[in-house]
Amino acid sequence: MTEKFINLTPCSERKRMQWTKKQLSIIAVVAITSFMGTFLISSVNIALPAIEKDFQMTAVSLSWIITSFLLASAMFLLPVGRWGDLTGIRKLFKGGLIIFTISSLLSGLAPGGFWLILFRFVQGVGAALTSTTGPAILVAAFVPQQRGRVLGISVSAVYLGLAFGPFAGGILTQHLGWRSLFFISTGLGILTTLIAFRFLGKDEITTRGQKKIQLKGTAWYMAGLIALVYGSSTIPAITGWLLMAGGAFALIVFWVIETKSDYPVIETRLFLANRLFAYSNLAALVNYSATFTIVFLLSLYLQKIQGLSPGNAGIILVAQPAIMAVFSPLAGKLSDRIQPRSLTTLGMSICTLGLAAFSLLTPTTPHIVIIAILIWEGFGFALFSSPNMNTIMSSVDKTRYGVASGSAATMRVLGQITSMTIATLFIAGFLNNHPIETVSNHLFMKVIHWGFLTFALLSTTGIYFSYYRGKITRKKE
After folding, report:
1. For residues 417 and 70, what is the distance between their CA atoms, to the nearest angstrom?
2. Smallest Cα–Cα separation from 103: which of 29, 162, 41, 189?
């Protein structure tokens, strides 16, 4: 009996580690889509000064080119997560690719700032469909012992897009104009859509019970987000504060409705009864709230304060996502072997110190110092991201993968919106809604100092949630 056991175990292990053609295709499609979305995000950040000059936009309206995309994503991520569990995650993934591709083309053809913001909003809807369902597709296709590894590959593709975006975006903006970024994204979207329809396959719907989703709670959720985000851009006007208060009230109503609903968009019981799930999501929210605007602010700093071209600024900003791309798969794989909270806590601590260092930038800070801080920050984020996502997906059963994936993606986008909102508040407060290119360097440096200091203080709360989340219990499937 002993000999038989010894012979069978290595065979089962080898079988478990071998990936089928279908699994490889799924990894490829999700990874390409992840790359495509973040490439556009990071490259548009580099192109913002060029867009500002082309459309004569103010600093606050310029920030809406980023915020509109994030707002749409946040509005649809949670409903998509629930919808995917009920109707099929692959179907929604393919639909998201189509929407993203068409809106990319329209963004490249936008005749003015208003239309660009509008098309970016539509683009965010498409991104919500793919970013929510992508991780769910991955974890459903692999055993628990491999989830950290495949999620690490997906996250690595995200960071490759972030790494390639600033460099390519800077070069393209400098020589072909900012519209070329959206046309290239259109080409990538068409290619990825064809691959997805060819290799992704169809859904196997196993959800039991009635397929319902209550729209009343979703309406309150969307209205609350719109009021909060738009209100923050009009502060210090009294209407801005009233809109933010109304938005907060709408989100509270949404939470109450979801708690009582038999078919909730977000399962509030997961947050109330599952500490591991709740704290991991809160840690993600804090991390993205503190770190997302690094590229946004540094892109403006390098081009306005230090006078760099878009291409040279992009080369410097490559440092952070490049480190993320290298170390995210390693951190994800390591989180399959040890408790992820050790990695996420260390990662959050590193990010906090990096943000504090950015608050000390001066107009003459050497480029090598900026690159060193970016490398440090990228390493911290790599240690945090993959293990944290692994924890979220491992804290629920397989019937809730879509909800968990949607919740994690929502925390990410809500964090990004929070980050942009904080940056916009400082921009509006110090720059008085003037175009960035017309204000003094002294005033803009105040935005850099106070912005990054605020983000560093915010990041410290993420250390608490990362450590006190608890341990994951891995089950074999």
Report:
1. 6
2. 189
- pLDDT over 60 (residue 130): yes
**Average of pLDDT values for 25-38?**
79
Q: Per the structure block, which two tokens stand in for 62?
A: 């310029």
From the list 373, 377, 383, 376, the residue with the least C-alpha distance to 347 is 383
Q: Is 307 left (phi over 0), alpha (psi -120 to 50) or beta?
A: left
Fill in the amino acid letter for 476.
K
Cβ atoms < 10 Å from Cβ of 86:
16
**Rounded distance, CA 310 to CA 57, Å?**
18
Closest CA to 99 of 199, 185, 4, 170: 185
Cα–Cα distances in Å, from 29 out to 136, 137, 393, 417, 419? 13, 10, 20, 27, 29
Q: Decide if 403 contacts 49 (C-beta within 8 A).
A: no
Q: Is 208 helix (H, G, I), strand (E, B) or coil?
A: coil
Q: Which of 22-26, 111-115, 340-344 has the lowest mean pLDDT?
A: 22-26
At residue 142, the pLDDT reads: 75
| Under 8 Å between Cβ of 202 and 90 | yes
Distances (CA, A) of 313 to 44, 78, 165, 277, 371: 13, 35, 11, 38, 11
295 Cβ neighbours under 8 A, 6+ residues apart: 42, 45, 162, 166, 317, 320
CA dist list (Å): 413 to 127, 363, 429: 11, 31, 24
Q: By three-state DSSP, how is residue 397 classified?
A: coil
Cα–Cα distance between 143 and 16 in angstroms, integer? 8
Residue recorded with tokens 């799930």: 277
Q: How much is the pLDDT for 262?
A: 73
| pLDDT given for residue 168 in this prediction | 83
State the Cα–Cα distance between residues 440 and 434, nearest whole angstrom. 11
- Dihedral Cα 216, 219, 224, 226, nearest 10 deg: 180
pTM comes to 0.74
